[in-house]
Hints:
Blueprint: E1 6-10, H1 15-27, E2 32-37, H2 48-53, E3 57-60, H3 66-70, E4 77-80, H4 96-116, E5 119-125, H5 132-135, E6 139-141, E7 146-148, E8 157-158, E9 161-162, H6 173-193, E10 197-202, E11 204-206, H7 218-227, E12 232-235, E13 244-249, H8 250-262, H9 264-268, E14 272-275, E15 282-284, H10 285-296, E16 302-305, E17 315-316, H11 321-327, H12 335-348, H13 350-356
Parallel strand pairs: 1-2, 1-4, 2-3, 4-5, 5-10, 10-14, 11-13, 12-16, 13-17
Antiparallel strand pairs: 6-7, 8-9, 13-15
Bound molecules: nicotinamide-adenine-dinucleotide.
Amino acid sequence: MAKMKRILITGGAGFVGSNLAIYLKNHFEGSSITALDNLYRKGSELNLPRLEEHGVDFINGDVRKISDLRKAGKIDFLIECSAEPSVLAGSDGNTNYLIETNLNGAINCAEVCRENNAGMIFLSTSRVYPMAPLVNASITEKETRFNFDKQQAVPGLSELGVSEKFPMDGERSLYGATKYSAEIILNEYRSLFNIPIVINRCGVIAGPWQFGKADQGIAAFWTAAHIFKKPLKYIGFGGTGKQVRDFLHIDDLAVLIALELESSEKFSNEGFFNIGGGSGTSASLLELTKICESTSGNSIGITPESTTRYADIPVYISDNSKISAFCGWSPLKTMENIITDIHSWILKTPSITNLYR
Ligand SMILES: NC(=O)c1ccc[n+]([C@@H]2O[C@H](COP(=O)([O-])OP(=O)(O)OC[C@H]3O[C@@H](n4cnc5c(N)ncnc54)[C@H](O)[C@@H]3O)[C@@H](O)[C@H]2O)c1
């Protein structure tokens, strides 16, 4: 418990970072939590009063500058939640911010952990897995969704989803490549400097305080569009809306991160984990629409656009078998819980209602 005292959360004004900061502040009595963020993401500034209200300190800083990270002083743990998190980032040729933040920023975080002999938790992504074997997976088209078949040609893939045994060769998007490159360097820091570094390869994370956009934060984006009757599109895979993702409620993630902090060496020794809502908490866009319609009472026109976008894949589900067997964690919140929570958050928070309207 002593090592839980001082935690620095980079990207701490973002969706994941701010929710973790507040959860951990309440969970670990006497802990001191600092959120560092450069407020790059539109909406992150709206988290600042919330962080202050819960006793979380804030540094307006940038992970690209190690001197900013050092402003936090002595730390026992760092949770790296800063990122340019869109899978489309860099596809317009502007690659610098993505690489500098996601890769060099993560390395700066590891370096500060080395200086402090501190542990680190890294929010990585399912996007580290290459796209071609996912696009070519054996999939059945059902009435409302695509499903992974039981029998698959590649290891690490089953009807439960993608496990840690999935092959790593191939292109994975620039976003995925920045995260995977960071993982590789972090592994070296772990073994060379003997500091605990826990790597979570997360599927889609969702919940309140996510400032959803078309290319990132789809659950909040879809829910808000239904509330405020904004137009939506089913993009790619014939425009049918059958592409599937698993969704992890931020509250379920927070429970796991607290476990990882409590036993960081044990988790670190395992290398990395796939973390997500899993097959039980997944939805296609069509299914997401149905839930949003019943939550909001609104039905909106959704335009099909058949051309598939860069880096899109038909199905991703996290196979949580390894993490569940390792520590007993599995997500508890359902798809309906996720959308209901986002729905009531948008409506009861005036600053958020104005942002989305
Ligand atoms: N949300 C998801 O579905 C999801 C899924 C898998 C992995 N992740 C990972 O989880 C982490 C958190 O994602 P999120 O959904 O909270 O995204 P987010 O955009 O809400 O939060 C990221 C925060 O980082 C900040 N930031 C960006 N560049 C920075 C920089 N150079 N210096 C300091 N701060 C900077 C942003 O202002 C933002 O507040 C990211 O590493 C992301 O890659 C997210």
